Amino acid sequence: MWEALQRVPARQTYQIRRMLTEDTVRASDRRARFVGIADYEAAGGIVLRDLFESDDGGWLQDPALLDRLVAAKLERETETVRAEGWKWVEVAPDFPYGHTYGLRRLSGKEVPLTKKEAKARDALKAELDKLEKKYADAEEIPEEVDARLGEIETALGEYEQRPVVYDPIEIASAGVFVSIDSSGRLHIERGYVRPEDEEPVAARESEHAGEDDSDEGTRPRPNDASATSRGPSAPPGQQPDESDGEDEGIRPLSDRLIAELTAHRTLALREAVANDPDTAFLAMLHALCLKLFYRFGLDSCLEVEAKSVLFGTQIEGLGDMSYATAIDARHGTWSAQLPKDTADLWNFVSGLDGDSRQALFAHCVGLTINATCQPYDRRPKAIAHAGRLAEAVQLDMAAAGWRPTVAGYLARVTKAQILEAVREAKGEQAGQLIEDLKKADMAREAERLLEGTGWLPEPLRLRDVGTGNAAATSEGDSLPDFLADASDDAPRAVAAE
């Protein structure tokens, strides 16, 4: 490295640090935090430290050893999970975001607090209320009090996260995902049923049919010729004479007559629901829940197709973002509350109070949003609508947690784009400081310069699209800049990373 540095015209501290650490793992990495620096060093691993700057714990210089220690510890931690009797257990340091999509999750039952636990929780709440009331008007809270408040909040959070027990029969057909969360702790997701392990639909339908077949011998079946005696079929193009056979007694209505009668009912129902906004809202909420929470959600007469887009590749860090974890937590909370049988869903949603009903509706609508721009499906009008939606909710991606990192953005654009970002956020002088660097070094320095500035690339920026008359605005004027050339007639450029 010393020899390599002799060929570098302007040696900087960050260049030396990068060269020393390019094949290492940060101590803040989820794998390093899971294993622990002490155990890594005990196994013969070496940690490189910076004596002159804060290094967040240093850099682990043996990634292969770290991966072996992670795999071994994950297997040890998973032994107790396997002993619970699950059909399958998948283990990995991390899973791609959306890995549970399409799988039904068992609800289970939370273990209630014991009397001793409830008493301890109430005592903590009382202490918390007392401290907050005492220091409500204080300009500064003493360190020991602030530390105690943190301890109480952590303890109360643990009381809220109650263990869940599952039916042994359901356990035999379901599985578990075991991974490491962003803080380096073991993350266990129990109770997911794969499609191939689901009970066949035909079997379930036959069970329901059996419940209504107690009078099988006394009720005629539509396909039973001896019971219906419909007589000869009408010639092609000629409507059957439904008045024929009046002396044949009571028989099922013809398919054509049923279709006509229910067509009248459909239109009348449309008109009635259109004049009853509360029932219309309830019906839409019911249809959305069927599509987004149940695998066989066919219990609605509304022909509404609700889809939740999947992300084809594992996007690094996507599942750890605050907005992703919030969606997953909220979805899990609702999943645990919704009834297991779709037949009971209508009564559940109709029994919710107004605020809960609106919150569930907003969650379902949010799940259907797809503002992703794919090279094979740019959807300019849909992306333009996403801009209007973002404006309506005042979406700020910087405040939401997105950052222009090397891996997520800066290493995947040109040097000119990196310099443009730095100049927009920090001014011309900051751009001049890095304009002579190689791209890798420029990207690293740009990440440091852009930290905390709130800078966003154009596809993530909030656009003031306004609410003008769509008829008076051309389609090109309503599109974001990065889609302005993606019309159906224009050639589609594909960027190479």
The major sheet is characterized as: 4 strands, mixed
Q: What is the CA–CA distance across the termini?
A: 29 Å
Report the count of strand segments: 9
Outline the low-pLDDT stretches. Answer: 211-237, 465-478, 485-497
- Regarding quaternary structure, how should these chains be classified? single chain
Mean of residue pLDDT values: 78
How much helix, percentage-wise, in residues?
40-55%
Count of helical stretches: 21
Strand content: 5-15%
- How would you describe the shape? globular
Alpha-beta classification: alpha+beta
String of helices and strands: HHEHHEEHEEEHHEHEEHHHHHHHHHHHHH
Strand order of the largest sheet: 4-8-9-5
Query: Over the alpha carbons, how many angstroms does the gyration radius reach?
Result: 31 Å
Structural features, described:
The protein has 497 residues and is of the alpha+beta class. Among the domains are: 2-74, no CATH class; 78-197, no CATH class. It is 46% helix and 6% strand. The protein contains 21 helices and 9 strands. It has helices at residues 2-5, 13-21, 30-35, 37-42, 63-82, 115-134, 143-160, 168-171, 201-211, 225-228, 255-274, 277-293, 322-337, 345-350, 354-367, 380-393, 397-400, 415-426, 428-434, 439-450, 475-478; strands at residues 25-26, 47-48, 59-60, 88-91, 104-105, 109-110, 164-165, 175-180, 186-193. The strands form 3 sheets. Strands 4-8-9-5 form a 4-stranded mixed beta sheet. A hairpin with a 5-residue loop joins strand 8 and strand 9 (186-193). Helix 6 runs antiparallel to helix 7. The protein is globular and about 105 Å long. The two termini are 29 Å apart.
